[in-house]
Amino acid sequence: MIDNSKVQTDFINLIEDNKKLIYKISFFYCDCSVDKEDLFQEIILNLWIAFPYFKNKSKISTWIYRVAFNTAISWVREYTKQNRTIKYTSLIPNLPIESDESDADELYTRLYKAINTLGDIDKAIILLLLDEYSYDEIAEIVGLTKTNIATKINRIKVKLRSQMFNV
């Protein structure tokens, strides 16, 4: 017999330990704070539904990323079907950037503006890369081959470099 209170406690602890990851995905796939909160809740719901089926065949963070990215991509598609638009570039002023206007801050802002122009899958790939996931882990999360991931990463880097430095 399954102890539901233990399952609930384990799930709550899992979410608490990984809420920054979930917030980050919500941040990059939504424009306004209300939408970010909605997507965050949708991710939590989908994690709860999938939680009993997690088999420990991958790292828990890999599993969470996969569920969260799939939820975010589906949510954005549904959101745009309702004749709404999402303005990724308007997210930039909300970034927690130091106000000293240093070169690093400007580069940081330009990088996130460029990332926000990417398609859903490319955005997921580059965020995972920035979080130092291996190509194998990214391939598992996104559902592509390692070779395809390597090719996409090279293309994404070229696109980001071009956008950031007008090359």
Write the layout of secondary structure elements.
Blueprint: H1 4-29, H2 33-50, H3 60-81, H4 103-115, H5 120-130, H6 135-142, H7 146-165
Q: What's this model, at a glance?
A:
By secondary structure, the chain is mainly α. The protein has helices at 4-29, 33-50, 60-81, 103-115, 120-130, 135-142, 146-165. The chain is globular, with a radius of gyration of 17 Å.
* SSE-based structural type: mainly alpha
Strand content: under 5%
Radius of gyration: 17 Å
The rounded distance between the terminal residues' Cα atoms is 62 Å
Q: List unreliable stretches of 5+ residues.
A: 85-101
How many extended strands? 0
Keywords:
167 residues; mainly alpha; single chain
Structural summary, described in words:
By secondary structure, the protein is mainly α. It has seven helices and no strands. Helix 1 packs across helix 3 (60-81), helix 2 (33-50) packs across helix 3 and helix 6 (135-142) packs across helix 7. It is globular and about 55 Å long. Residues 85-101 have low confidence and may be disordered.
